[in-house]
Amino acid sequence: MAGKGGVGKTVVSATIARAAARVGLSTLVVEVEGKSGLATMFGQQGLDYDETVLSAGGGRAGDGEVRARTLTPDEALLDYLRDHGLSRISKRLVSSGALDVVATAAPGIKDILVLGKVKQLERAAATDLLVLDAPAAGHAITFLQAARVLLDTVRVGPINAQAREVLEMLTDHARCRVVLVTLPEETPVNELVDTAFNLEDRVGVGLGPVVVNGLYDDIPGLHAEPAAAAETAGTALRKGEAQALRAAAAFRSDRMELQAEQVARLADRLPLAQIRLPFVFTTEIGPDELDLLAARFLAEVDALPEVV
Ligand SMILES: Nc1ncnc2c1ncn2[C@@H]1O[C@H](COP(=O)(O)OP(=O)(O)OP(=O)(O)O)[C@@H](O)[C@H]1O
Ligand SMILES: [Mg+2]
Fold first, then answer.
1. pTM more than 0.85
2. Which residues partner with 182 through β-bridges?
3. Is 61 in a helix, a strand, or coil?
4. What is the 3-state secondary structure (H, E, C) of 88-141?
5. Whether residue 307 has pLDDT greater than 70
6. Cβ–Cβ < 8 Å for 77, 113
7. Distance CA 152, CA 112 (A)
């Protein structure tokens, strides 16, 4: 999952995990950037480097299990050293900040540690679906490009092997797809289009459908005259209410016109299927809102023109 900061990558990661669960698939969500609201959306506390079960599988509906974990470069390095029989020195190495020194000398090393671990998780095949909640757009390109850059600079040894295997995973469209997320607004749409072409050209990853998040749903009767509508509904408006309602309706129709323009512009500039998710009016997205988003996601997938 990739996209500009704040467009809803984490919400869409959770939505896809919940949607997958509803069709019986198990999912592991991997978070690379510290604190997010992922756990809260499943009605749980926080995340940790160890896997947490966000929602149990089974039940009457035969739901798939959703698990999640964080993944930082330091922790991935510890794992790597442990797997290679170097656990005695690993703690000292990491706590001494040696990784930062190496990372300065060889940019991309941290990204490859994280992606290498993701590859290991994918290979372990302990889950039907692995969702990686990637860093924001600018960084997503360097993040995913790290393997290619390292392959060019480090020609032999374990880093080369690791980078090659990561690149194999990223460029295998049957194993990995990047889902780009945007809001229906000018700047995020522009950035998404640039990112899409960059990812295809510079990294060689396959793109899934794009997700347009936070769309205002149409409201029947939005343009009705408030006083008449109130009468039909059997109530009367108080002083000033008709004017306030007219202003709110005008605001909403403006906003819907703008979003329709942006959705059309995106379709025009990028020939990828779109999955559209509604803006949910709430202070915090919790399990109920997530269920609603997941249901919409599945309906949108069903409506896609072809299997992508
Ligand atoms: N469809 C939606 N309806 C209502 N609120 C939403 C929706 N999508 C996202 N939000 C809210 O917008 C905020 C940003 O969403 P989210 O954290 O998923 O974005 P992000 O792209 O992961 O951000 P970051 O780049 O900081 O990781 C959150 O407060 C989230 O609850
Ligand atoms: Mg996020």
1. yes
2. 212
3. coil
4. HHHHHHHHCCHHHHHHHHCCCHHHHHHHHHHHHHHHHCCCCEEEEECCCHHHHH
5. no
6. yes
7. 13
Taking the C-alpha atoms of residue 50 and residue 33, their distance in angstroms, rounded to an integer, is: 15
Contact 122, 27 (CB under 8 A): no
Mutate to test the pocket of ligand 1, among 1, 10, 277 (most ligand atoms within 8 A of CB): 10
- At residue 2, what is the residue type? A
Q: Which amino acid is at 263?
A: V
Calpha distance 71→100 (Å, rounded): 16
Which of 4, 9, 11 has the most ligand 1 atoms within 8 A of CB, as the residue to mutate? Answer: 11
User: Which position has the higher pLDDT, 147 or 97?
Assistant: 147
How far are the Cα atoms of 56, 281, 300 from residue 219, in angstroms, in the given order?
Answer: 35, 13, 19
| Residue 145 CA, ligand 1 centroid: distance in Å | 25
Q: Which residues form ligand 1's pocket by a CB distance below 6 Å?
A: 3, 5-11, 36-37, 136, 213-214, 277, 279-280, 285
Quote the CA–CA distance of 28 and 9 in Å, as a whole number: 15
Pairing assessment for the beta strands 66-70 and 52-55 based on DSSP bridges:
antiparallel
Q: Pull the structure tokens for residue 84.
A: 């290679």
Q: Are 252 and 216 in contact (CB under 8 A)?
A: yes
Average pLDDT of the residues of the chain? 89
**Separation of CA 214 and ligand 1 centre (Å):** 9
Report how far Cα 211 is from the mean position of its chain's Cα atoms: 9
Element (H, E) at 214: strand 210-215
- Report residue 250 as tokens: 């005008």
Percent of the chain with pLDDT over 90: 56
